[in-house]
Each structure stands twice: as structure tokens, then as C-alpha cells.
Design goal:
Elements lengths: L2 E5 L2 E5 L11 H11 L2 H17 L4 H11 L3 H24 L13 H27 L3 H10 L3 H20 L2 E2 L2 E2 L2 H9 L8 H17 L5 H12 L1
Antiparallel strand pairs: 1-2, 3-4
Helix pairs in contact: 2-4, 3-4, 3-5, 4-5, 5-6, 6-7, 9-10
């Protein structure tokens, strides 16, 4: 029997088995109970709805995977994402077997679309974080920083910048003249006078500019000093 709820002048009709809301349309609610629903089907729907809540982006499963990604436990996260997708596929099959059309606006609305969107979000996070870690291992710090910043991970980007700065400082400090660090003037002269580096003028300039960038990244020279020397190399 259709459930009727009255609030002031507004009357709303619900399926007495599954609780689906049919608004003011008594006829649709009655047809649903007579031809589409049953106590058994209502039980399946409640089970599926409960599982859907757990898999949604506010559910424990999704939040656990996202936390694992944030900690950069990428192998573990990959396994969890695959299990998550497998369970979503299983939930879809269960809904079909129970007689639900998950594309129907009145039944399990948006189930497939919503959960599969979650999988795409998690996979994108996994791919980008894996790329950042791989670039860092390859000492391609600039690329790693760009990916971390695109992910909104400012602390990770700062951590990589610190590593890059420390490694650049080590390179500069290894260049010693009689036990003392070489001065900025000596470095400038060294960069500008390396005419014997490379096999041609273009390659020579490229090498000088690369070394200049390393000195700037190490913090040994300021941006203004780098731009001044850069113009002398190019001219």
C-alpha cells in the first residue's frame, strides 16, 4: 500500500516497500508498488544503497584510499584503487541482478556515473603522484616541483626545492681555490671565459647558461646577478 505523508497542504507519496519518493504522484507510486517493487527488491535496494554510501567520496573506503595517496604510499594505493573499482563493478552487477536500472532517474540514480567518476579521480591522483616521485628519482627536480604544485602539494614542492638547493650548494662548494670558496667574480669570469667548452658557439653558450642556472638554483647568486651575466653570455 502506498505510504502517504501530509505536511500542511502538501501531500507526498512513497513506496511502502523501498521508501522511494514519488512526490505528489500517487499513480506512479501505486504502479511502482504493483509492478516494479516488492519486499525482496526493497531489501536489495537498501543493501545496495548502504554499499553505495561506503563507496561514495564521503565514505570510508574512498577516504582511506585518498589518505594513502596523500602519504605517497603509491603501491598500496594502487592495490586499493583496483579493489575499489572491482567492488563498484560488483555493485553494478548486483543492482542489475536485483532488477534495478541504474540509468533510470527514479532508481539508483547516478550510481554508476558517480562511483566511476571517483575511480577516475583516484587514478589521476595516483598517476600524477607517481610521475612526481619518478621525476624526483631521476633528479629532474623542476618537473617534480611542477607536478607537486599542480596537485596542490605545496609542502612537497618546497621539500624538492630544498633538495635541489642543497645539491646545488654542494656543487659550488666543491669548487675550491687554495682551500677557499671561489668568489662570485671568479665564477662569473669562469662562466664567461669557457671558450673551449663544446664544439661550437651555440653549444658553448648553452653550456654557460646551464652552469649559470645551476649557480642561481644553488642560491650562490641572485636573480639580478644571473640576468646580468646571462646578457653578457648571449651578447
Amino acid at each position: 500500500m502506498v505510504k502517504k505523508v501530509e505536511e500542511g497542504t502538501v501531500t507526498t507519496y512513497y513506496c511502502d516497500f523501498c521508501g522511494e519518493d514519488f512526490g505528489y504522484n500517487y499513480g506512479m507510486a501505486e504502479n511502482h508498488e504493483m509492478y516494479d517493487c516488492s519486499p525482496k527488491k526493497a531489501k536489495h535496494k537498501n543493501e545496495i544503497s548502504k554499499a553505495q554510501e561506503e563507496l561514495n567520496d564521503g565514505g570510508k573506503r574512498y577516504q582511506n584510499i585518498y589518505s594513502t595517496l596523500k602519504e605517497n604510499k603509491l603501491d598500496e594505493a594502487k592495490t586499493l584503487v583496483n579493489e575499489y573499482k572491482k567492488d563498484i563493478d560488483g555493485l553494478e552487477k548486483k543492482a542489475y541482478r536485483a532488477g534495478f536500472d541504474i540509468t533510470n532517474k527514479n532508481e539508483m540514480s547516478g550510481l554508476s556515473k558517480k562511483l566511476k567518476a571517483n575511480v577516475r579521480i583516484l587514478n589521476m591522483q595516483l598517476q600524477n603522484r607517481t610521475k612526481a616521485v619518478q621525476r624526483e628519482r631521476a633528479l629532474d627536480f623542476g618537473a617534480a616541483i611542477r607536478v607537486w604544485e599542480e596537485l596542490g602539494e605545496i609542502d612537497e614542492a618546497a621539500r624538492v626545492r630544498k633538495i635541489m638547493s642543497e645539491q646545488g650548494a654542494v656543487k659550488v662548494n666543491q669548487k675550491v681555490v687554495h682551500g677557499d670558496e671561489i668568489s662570485k667574480t671568479e665564477i662569473k669570469d669562469s662562466v664567461l671565459n669557457k671558450s673551449n667548452v663544446g664544439t661550437g658557439e651555440g653549444e658553448d653558450k648553452f653550456t654557460k647558461l646551464k652552469e649559470l642556472k645551476e649557480m642561481f638554483d644553488s642560491g650562490f647568486i641572485s636573480k639580478e646577478e644571473m640576468e646580468t651575466i646571462k646578457m653578457e653570455i648571449i651578447s
